[in-house]
């Protein structure tokens, strides 16, 4: 017969503004974070940067990282009370699947490598040019997706977390994923972890 391999399911927390001095691969790095943050021994299983270090801009001091917890209570603590990484107190939120957006045409539902559109759209102003060359001010931003959907498209770009078009897509995705209803990881013996996004204003809303 075949051999099955058990893979531990981790509670992944997206933590923002982590000092780039932190090295997830360094010996004792995770243990130091756990000790300084008051997590149980072994609660923090792994960590990785969202973006490869070699892709950072010159002089960058903080970056976003994913921390994988084997203990859901510790993961919830990291989100509610923060965690200490290289001398800085940082916070995160539950990492969930979000709608994918093409960085070429900006439409939701596919990635740039699979884009079949014959035009490129700017993520800041919605016009047909590369986002990196756009020089409009924040007040002049316009969302290509909201414009196509005949929504209020002025004052924000497609990457804005408050974009009505994105919010609608995110809500639909959450409705298909029961875990996305809760801002925290469920702990059977802790009723405070059972709340939904609608039931608490202390939850971090991604």
Please provide a brief summary of the model.
InterPro entries: Znf_CCHC_sf. This protein is an alpha+beta fold and 206 residues long.
Describe this structure in words.
GO terms for molecular function: nucleic acid binding; zinc ion binding. It comes from Mycena albidolilacea. This is CCHC-type domain-containing protein. There is one protein chain. The chain has 206 residues and is an alpha+beta fold. 17% of the residues lie in helices and 16% in strands. The protein has four helices and six strands; from the N terminus they run βαββαβββαα. The chain has helices at residues 29-37, 72-80, 144-148, 164-175; strands spanning 11-19, 44-49, 62-69, 83-85, 88-90, 92-94. The chain has a four-stranded antiparallel β-sheet with strand order 2-3-1-6, with helices on one face. The protein has a two-stranded antiparallel sheet with strand order 4-5. The radius of gyration is 20 Å and the shape is globular. The N and C termini lie far apart (44 Å). Mean pLDDT is 87; it is low at 201-206.
How many domain modules?
2
Helical segment count: 4
Number of DSSP strands?
6
Largest sheet: 4 strands, antiparallel
The proportion of residues in beta strands is 15-25%
Helix content: 10-25%
Shape: globular
Mean pLDDT: 87
Radius of gyration: 20 Å
Organism: Mycena albidolilacea
Keywords: mRNA processing
GO molecular function: nucleic acid binding; zinc ion binding
Protein name: CCHC-type domain-containing protein
């Amino acid at each position: 017969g075949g051999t099955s391999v058990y893979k531990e399911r981790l509670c992944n927390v997206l933590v923002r503004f982590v000092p780039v001095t932190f090295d997830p691969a360094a010996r004792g790095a995770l243990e130091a974070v756990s000790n300084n943050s008051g997590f149980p021994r072994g609660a923090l299983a792994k960590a990785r940067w969202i973006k490869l270090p070699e892709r950072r801009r010159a002089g960058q001091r903080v970056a976003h990282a994913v921390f994988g917890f084997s203990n859901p209570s510790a993961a919830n603590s990291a989100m509610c009370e923060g965690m200490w990484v290289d001398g800085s107190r940082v916070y995160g939120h539950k990492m969930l699947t979000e709608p994918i957006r093409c960085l070429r045409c900006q439409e939701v539902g596919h990635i740039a490598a699979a884009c079949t559109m014959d035009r490129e759209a700017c993520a800041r102003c919605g016009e047909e040019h590369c986002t990196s060359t756009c020089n409009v001010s924040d007040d002049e931003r316009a969302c290509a997706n909201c414009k196509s959907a005949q929504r209020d498209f002025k004052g924000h770009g497609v990457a804005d977390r408050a974009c009505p078009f994105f919010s609608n897509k995110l809500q639909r995705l959450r409705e298909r994923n029961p875990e996305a209803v809760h801002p925290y990881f469920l702990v059977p013996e802790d009723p405070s972890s059972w709340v939904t996004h609608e039931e608490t204003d202390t939850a971090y809303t991604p």
